Structure formats: C-alpha cells, structure tokens
Description:
Blueprint: H1 3-18, H2 22-32, H3 38-46, H4 50-57, H5 67-86, H6 90-101, H7 109-117, H8 136-153, H9 170-184, H10 219-223, H11 252-255, H12 279-284, H13 304-308, E1 337-343, E2 348-353, E3 360-365, E4 370-374, E5 379-384, H14 396-404, E6 410-415, E7 421-426, E8 430-437, E9 441-449, E10 455-461, E11 468-473, E12 477-482, E13 488-493, E14 499-507, E15 510-517, E16 521-526, E17 534-537, E18 543-548, E19 555-560, E20 566-572, E21 577-582, E22 595-598, E23 602-607, E24 610-615, E25 621-625, E26 637-639, E27 645-649, E28 654-659, H15 661-671, E29 686-687, E30 694-695, E31 720-725, E32 731-736, E33 740-745, E34 764-766, E35 774-775, E36 789-792, E37 798-802, E38 807-811, E39 817-821, E40 828-833, E41 840-845, E42 850-854, E43 859-864, E44 871-877, E45 882-887, E46 891-896, E47 902-907, E48 924-927, E49 933-938, E50 941-946, E51 951-957, E52 966-971, E53 977-982, E54 987-991, E55 997-1001, E56 1018-1023, E57 1031-1035, E58 1040-1043, E59 1062-1064
Antiparallel strand pairs: 1-28, 2-3, 3-4, 4-5, 6-7, 7-8, 8-9, 10-11, 11-12, 12-13, 14-15, 15-16, 16-17, 18-19, 19-20, 20-21, 22-23, 23-24, 24-25, 26-27, 27-28, 29-30, 31-32, 32-33, 33-34, 33-35, 36-37, 37-38, 38-39, 40-41, 41-42, 42-43, 44-45, 45-46, 46-47, 48-49, 49-50, 50-51, 51-59, 52-53, ...
Helix pairs in contact: 1-2, 3-8, 5-6, 5-8
Amino acid sequence: xxxxxxxLVFLILQFLDEEKFKETVHKLEQESxxxxxxxYFEEQVQSGEWDEVERYLSGFTKVDDNRxxxxxxxxxxxxxxxxxxxxxxxxxxxxxxxxxxxVFSSFNEELYKEITQLLTLDNxxxxxxxxxxxxxxxxxxxxxxxxxxLIEANPLFREKLTFPTLKASRLRTLINQSLNWQHQLCKNPxxxxxxxxxxxxxxxxxxxxxxxxxxxxNPLVGGLPKGGAFPSLGTHSPFxxxxxxxxxxxxxxxxxxxxxxxxxxxxxxxxxxxxxxxxGPLLKRPRTPPxxxxxxxxxxxxxxxxxxxxxxxxxxxxxxxxxxxxLPQSSDDLPKxxxxxxxxxxxxxxxxxxxxxxxxxxxxxxxGEIGIWExxxxxxxxxxxxxxxxxxxxxxxxxxxxxxDPVVAVNRTMWSPDGTxxxxxxxxxxxxxxxxxxxxxxxxxxxxxAHIGSVNDIAFSHPNKQLSIITCGDDKTIKVWDASTGHKQxxxxxxxxxxxxxxxxxxxxxxxxxxTAVDGKIKAWLYDHLGSRVDYDxxxxxxxxxxxxxxxxRLFSCGTSKEGESFLVEWNExxxxxxxxxxxxxxRSSNVVQFDTTKNRFLAAGDEFLIKFWDxxxxxxxxxTDAEGGLPASPxxxxxxxxxxxxxxxxxxxxxxxxxxxxxxxxRTFESRAFEGGKLFxxxxxxxxxxxxxxxxxxxxxSGPIVGALPxxxxxxxxxxxxxxxxxxxxxxxxxxxxVHKLWKWQRNERNMSGKASASIAPQxxxxxxxxxxxxxxxxxxxxxxxxxxxxxxNDSYVMxxxxxxxxxxxxxxxxxxxxxxxxxxxATFLAFHPQDNNIIAIGMEDSTIQxxxxxxxxxxxxxxxxxxxxxxxxxxxxxxxLVSSGADSxxxxxxxxGWEKRRTKAIQIPAGRxxxxxxxxxxxxxxxxxxxxxxxxxxxxxxxxxxxxxRVRQWVPRxxxxxxxxxxxxxxDSQLVYAGFSDGSVGVMDGESLLPRCRVAxxxxxxxxxxxxxxxxxxxxxxxxxxxxxxxxxxxxxxxxLEPLETEGKWGTGPSSDNxxxxxxxxxxxxxxxxxxxxxx
Length: 1082
C-alpha cells in the first residue's frame, strides 16, 4: 500500500473515532495493521476478552513471526489457562491446553509438560513458581506490564504504536478545501452554493437552471484535472477509482506498451468539467493547449476573472491557499553565493557534475575540448582536445565532413550513473566514451561513429539491466549503444526533423525514452522496434529539452521558439497535458534557454543575464541572481547531485561556481588540503596550556595528556578489542577482550557547551541506575581467544555485539539484552548494518562465510561463500550498491547487494621483504565518503582501491620512522586523513588522497612511561563522526585515549612527506614494495 493510502487510513480512523464508530475504528486498525491501539488492547486484556485480544493482535503479528510474538501469545494463553483452572473448569482448561498451548510444545516440551501437570493439582498455587499468583485482576495487570514491554521491543510493532499528530477533523477539512477549489472553477459561482453530494464534482447551475457549455477555446477546460491526474489512493480507497488513462497519454502508452499508439498531440480535454475526455476527437484533431498562462494549477489567463474576483463565502468551508497564490517557499537552500571562478579558455557548451564525487565537474567546449575540474581546489585535473582515435574505422561521410571543416564542437557531456564512464557528443558524427579513474585519469574506452551530421545529445540508461548510451542527431534518428562494447542495439526512426534531445526514464519495470526534435515534436519509445508511442507538440515548436525531478515523479520541459519566446512547463503524465506553465522569462531570448532541477523542489534557468529560480509548485519566479555579473544572455547551468553547488557559464569563457551553506562547507574541506609537498616530516607537538612546557603530545592537560583522562576505575582492565564513537559524537563505546562494554559520555556544561567529545575535557564512565554491565554471551567460549565484533544503530539506541558467543542486541539506555541470536559455531567475527535497512545485517563468520540476516523475521536470507578464512572486514557502498568483504586470507571480494552474487575478487599484494606473496593476515576495509574509493588495511600496508573495478590506485608501505607493522587504521570522518596505529605505539596521520604521512605522534605523547609501557600500542582506532581532527585509541593495556591537535595549530602536521613510506600510484605488481619507486600523489 502506498504512503498516501496509509495516510488516508489514518484520516479515516480519526473520522470514525470522532463520529463514535468505536467497533469500526478497531476493526480498521486490525485489518490495516497501521496502528496498534495500546489503550484498547489493555481494556480487552483487563476485561478478559481473550478471543478479541488474539483477533486484534492477528492484524499485526502471528505466533511464529519472531520470539517476541511467540512470548506474547504464550503469556496470553497461559493466563487464560490459569484462569480456567482457578475457576475449577477442568474441561475448559483441557481445551485451552490442547488447542492453544500445544503449539508451544515443539519449542519447549518440558515447559508444556509442566503446564499439563497443573491439571493434577487441586490448586495450581501449590506449584512453587505459581505460589505468588494472586487474584485474577492483579494477575492480568502483572501480565499486561510484561506484554507492553514485549510489544514495544517487537520490531513488527515499530512505528505502529503512535498515532500521527493531526488537526481535528482533518478529513472534513480536506473535503471542504476540495469543494472550495471546485467552486472556484464554476462558470457561474453562487454566493451560497448548495452542496448536496460528494459523489460527483461540484458545479453551480446557471441562473436559468440549465448548464452552459464552456466556450471551445477556453483553455481552462483542457487544464482541468481528471481522476488520473492525482496519485492513486490504492485499492483500499473509499472513493471511486479513476478512469484508466487513454493509450495516447504519457501514462497510457506505458500501460498499453505492447501496441503502438496513434500520434495525437496534447489534447485540450473534454467539454465538460466532471467527465473524462472523449478520446475520439483528440485522435482526429491533435492540438497543444495554450501554455501562456500566468496562473497555475489548471487556471489560465483566460480565466483571470476567477483569480481577480473575491472568493465567495461558503458556509462550513475552510479557506484554502491555492498554489497560484500561495507564498513562495524559502530560497535559503538555493546555491546563490559566488564561491569559485574557473577559466576554461574557450566557450563552454555543456557541463555535468560527477554523480558521486560532488565537486568534480566535467566540461565540454565549442572547440572540441573536454576538461575535468576539481572545483573545491580550483584545479583542472585533466584536459583533452578533440581528435579521431582511429580514422580507419570512420565512415566516408564523416571523413569528408572533417576534411571540409575540421572545427568540431562539443554538444553534450555526461557522466554515467556510477561515474565510471563519461560520454561526449560532438558536432560531427562522433561520440567518445572515456573511462574515468581517480585523480582525473581519463582513458579512451569507445569511439562510435554514431550519426550523419551532428550528434546533438547523449544519455545513459539501463535497459535489460545493462548500461547503454543513447544518442540522437541531425539524421533524425535516436540510437542505443552497448556502453561496454560500443555495438548498436536499437535505431528509432520516426522524427521528421533533426532530433534535439533525449530523456530516458523508467516507471517500475518499463524503460522508455522521450525525444524532442527541432520541429517541436515530442515522441516516446520503448526498447523495441514498434515505433514511437506518443507524438506531442512541445511549447514553442522548436528546441526543447526534458528532465525528470530527482525522484523521478515529475516531468518538466524547457524550450525556446524560433521567435525567442521561452517556455518552462510541467507535464501531467497521466493526461498527456501541460500541468503548469512557469512565468518570468523575457519576451525575446537570443539563444535556447537551458534549465536544470534540484532537490525535487526547485527549477533553475538562465535568462536575461541571470539565473532564475522557481519553486516547482509555484509558477512565479522565486528568486534570481546575477552571480556578481559577467553572465551571458542565456547562461548554461548545472546543479551537483545534492543541489549544494551550481555551475554557471560566463561571458569570458569561464565558469562560476555558486553554493549554499552546505556547498560552502564542502568546498572548504579542500582549502584545508592545500599543502606544500616535500616539507620536513615532524612529530606532532603541542604546548601545555598551564606549564608552557613543550612536549611531543597531541593533547595535554595540567595533569598530563588528555586522552579521556579516565581514572583507574574507568579502565577496562583488559585489552580494548573494539572502539566506536556514538553517531551523535557525545560518547565513546568500547568492547574489551573480556566481553564487557564500557560507555564514556561527555557532559554538556559551561566548558563544553556542545556536549560533544573533546580531548580537553574528561568524560564520565556511564552506567544505568540498575548498575548492570553490558556483557556479551560467552557461554562455552573463551572471550580472550574470540574475535569480537560490534555495530551501532544509526540513532544510537541499540548496539549489536558478539565476543565468540551468541550475537547480543543491547538497549543503550538500560544496557539490557533485548535479544540474542545465531549461537556458535560458527562464531560471528564482523557486523555491518545495511545502509538502507537497519533490519538487514551482514555478519562475517569464523568459517569464512557471510550471512545476510534479517532481524525482523529472524531469518538468514543469503549465505555468501568466497573466502577461505575468517571474515575480518565488511563495508557497504550506497553509490555502487555493493558489499565489500575482506578476510584473514588477505582476499577482498565485491558482492552485489541486489542478488548477493559475487562480482569481483582480488588478493592484496604483499610488499617484497614483508612475507611471502601468499602471506595472510587480517585485512580491514572501509569506504571513503564518496563510496567509490576503498581503504584496505593490512599489517604490511595501506592501500586505496577503486571499488568499481577493484583496481588499486595507491599503496603505502611503512618505512623509517614507521618501522613496525600496522595495528589499525581508519579514515577521518571527512575522509581527508587516515589515522594509522603501529605495533611500536606510534600513530601516523596520513593524507587521505596520497597516503603520505603528514605527522607522527610518538608513543610518549599519550602513554605514561613506566614498567611495561614499551609493550603498549593501539589495537583499534575510532574517529569522531563530525570533528575530522579528533580520534580515539583503544590500547593494549585497556585504556582509551582521545587525541586532537592544539587549537593554535588547528591541524595535524604541515603536509605529507614522500620520504616516509613507499607509495605506489599504479596497480603494478613490480612496483609494490620497491622503496625506490616512491611517487607522491598530485
């Protein structure tokens, strides 16, 4: 059921409750399963209505759904059984025992036998465990407390125990608003309309009692919404279902995708206000409705009198603001602040931000050049001039065109959805595909002689789950090519003029392409050979581009006529009609106006030497900016994926980067990385704020280094096996080798207004009032020999953990065990939550398998096999939709999340002189914030891989002064640094790009010197979730220490040095471990 249907159920529940339909309310609660009414449930339990109690529960859970559900039903049936015994109703008790309690015997036969033996007692209170059973009322109340705890802990009741906050009579209000809106559209509105029914749309009859037909040229008629124009409320809707869309609408041709449709233009609609349009006349006389309306939401300029006159007063009808007159939303989220200016050197024709690396901008120019910019550092990463890669395979028309006029321009540049490929469409015949690698490395991938004449547009799509590139050109065709091989898959013919743009999309499982031509025709195609499915006239009848909102639910187009009149509109796909026309363009544009969408909320277009912005739900211009001047009359523009940056072309062959507050923070992360290479490698040192004594320590306090400043009682008294910050950044959770967890919290006070973790303020060891310890299951295991693992939920409310025994789920507030599961063998060795679903957990096992476990249903969904030794690392990538695993076999494997099949595998290469090439050892993996780059940590090396291809792009091998093996390493929260611990106690701070050391923290900086101190070193490292310069060390002596640089320094070290480790920049096996093959990253 859709979210709108779910909300409708809540509205109906509120209505029924207000109207006192009590039985119906609870029936709907139970049948929909959306809201569990705890108060009603308590009333039924306290009154002993056991049949109704179980019937109501059945709408939300069944006996065997999970252990919580089983316990709930058992407690209810046990109470029913005891009450029958208490009444001396043995026949009823036997019936309950056989019919209701027998199901539990398969799970606990001994308990069932014990319950059965109660029949032999004159008074069941003779049983020791039931000796304190009081009267029926108190017993029910005691049981009810237990049931409430079980229901609240049961994941099946999650988000079902709270009724949404609604204003009183919300459903009535919505109906009144609808009537008010319908009354606004009446041709002859009456001051006091007589509303007699809700079954049909409201209309006011003319004074003479007859109904006047609207004039045939009234565009209001064509703009009225029909049933299909609104989102369906689902099968549970009490309203009449909408008529299915006709085969000629944008939605209808998909519903009838097996049959090619005729080609009518956008139809003006029916001559009645309430009924659906008659498709017959539309097929005979296709027309496009006028779009020069200044109002919106189906109101037009011809109906301006409707907007100007005062609204009639309607009794019991709430006032409602229409979209055309509503206040515009805030424009604070729009990128309007000038942050960067880039000099491309030639006129920019096309731009596209990388879909994952938000500050990488691809640019194409009028002289055939393409360039890639890192807009954060204002660095041009690469530039390529146009040239034919292999003239021998080019067609004769193309060769003749190049000889006649060698000047070639870029018409369009675009990244593939995952950012691993980019496509370039040129003004003569050719499309180039490049593979993109980290650092701006471009490699030719495919050269396609695509069209005769200009290639006007390109786009990527995934028909048949295979990456394809779509092109269109002056030869009036659209073509689809295999992006991997360059082979042609489809050719679509049917346009009568050059094809100007393409827009691929999909609805559910239907893949399709919109195309526009310079004669103003819009066509739609499925990936078959049956011709176009629709044929519409675009506003302006010339060059038009189309685009969907980011969530794929709203379709927009922008174009300019030959006379220079520009049109930006939203389409109603269900009706094949224009839903909204946006105003604010100047009367004559010298060029085709370009546009873009962002955040499912805003539109932007370049016009009148400005960037103009619209709220998608308002036809009037929301705001505009001139980007501090220098823009052309119709500037080109492009948002990044998050909408925090906007690239705009300038008059002087440059690009301006505009940003909002989020974009500014993103760009500033690159400013801190502007360092000089080759500076001296130094230890991090700070000065004590109280004594003025310089000491080689990253953090200090009057009594010594501030590393959490934990008192001896706060020490774990065992080695720290796992360490994590809470996601809120206010606490640190440690798991020791003895299976005990410790939680340190920072308090909000005058010294620490934010309450977040800080190296300059000591935290408190926190425990619940009960004083219990959070301890993992260690039955039949030795925790000192086990491989512990831990994972924290996103909201910090619970932690999942194991120390060789069962996996335990703890409540972080009470430290109580909520549940345990998956007893060994094999034991769990690594845990990772699925990024989109907290109910799905990837569990690495001691037997080298990975189990994909669904907590909600207590079931293993998949078991992944590929490693030969225990799993030591797991990491999910949102961008690539993959899970990466690493093991003690030094193997790294990439798994697809969709089907959990293995995609790629690679053994890490052991550097020369540090063990045999086949040496093994625990390998850890962690994704960079871009979810493309993968940090791989092994005791012999740090390495960065491009996870999309599983190719190594960086490797760092320790050397003096890092003379020992790596013990732990992790990215900083912004991925700009890597913190690495070594078995001699030192800590290295590395650059996140090059892996070259920036500074070294000596052991004496944070370890008190004394007996045994030489054997203390970091076993684990955790990083603060929002403070990139703060990290914590879990040490082999059981202590936890927090480090951050002195405030006056504000950073770790001054820059990377190439003299402190071998860095290999290319995946060449011969270069690995070669100490003379050091290469600094750019």
